[in-house]
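User: I'm curious whether this sequence folds into something compact or stays loose and floppy. Could you predict its structure so I can see for myself?
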Amino acid sequence: MTLSDPLILTASLIAVAFVGLSKGGFGGAFGLLGVPIMALFIPPLQAAALLLPIYLLMDAVSLWTWRGQWDKHILWQMVPAGLIGIFIGWLTASIVSDAAVRLLVGLVALGFVVMTVIKARYKTADKARTGNPLSAGFWGLLSGFTSFVAHAGGPTFQIHVMPMRLSPSLYTGTSVVFFAFMNASKIIPYYALGQFGLYNVSALLPMLPVAVIATLTGAFIVKRMDANKFYPFMYSMVGIVSIKLIYDGMSAL
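Assistant: Here's the prediction. I'll summarize afterward.
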């Protein structure tokens, strides 16, 4: 596959721009649009494989942009569990339904947002602590698994981390490092599943500058948001993502 078709090229550039904004920290809902937009023209798994090298480039840009701004304690708890989740996703790729996983993640994420809104309404919300290894392990594993199987690891990561009310920069930097590990760990499984083809090399080139610019733009916006605006925005994004996942899951079942 090449991007010689102007329609496919345009869709790919739009998809990369949305994902780049998300990678920069500006709302996970944008990142969820990448694969579906490209999947309008090519098979979804090929779209995901095509975007993975772009994800890695954006991860590198984000790691440099948010360097030193992450919570090491959260990462020590969640990254190993996430890598186990990636491995389980690899082992079960042929038997696990992408649609069922998307539906389940969407329902859990929507429940998380609804409960958060209810607690805020009745002023019963408590700031979560970072030292809960069982929660970190559970949600970290699910995030790795759903990232591999359904490319929807964001909501399960957010369920554990967002209630901690980290500063926007610290939250974004922690998310960037976690998903950089997750995306890098997908290279061997994707290759083993035969999803990388020669088309990727030529198809990547037009996307590179868009990926970098969009990622830096997302970071630029987040660095100028205070927590009182950042978290309502992020909870709104999780709500949008959950509805999109539920819709996609139910449509495909």
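Summary: The radius of gyration is 17 Å. The longest helix spans residues 227-252.
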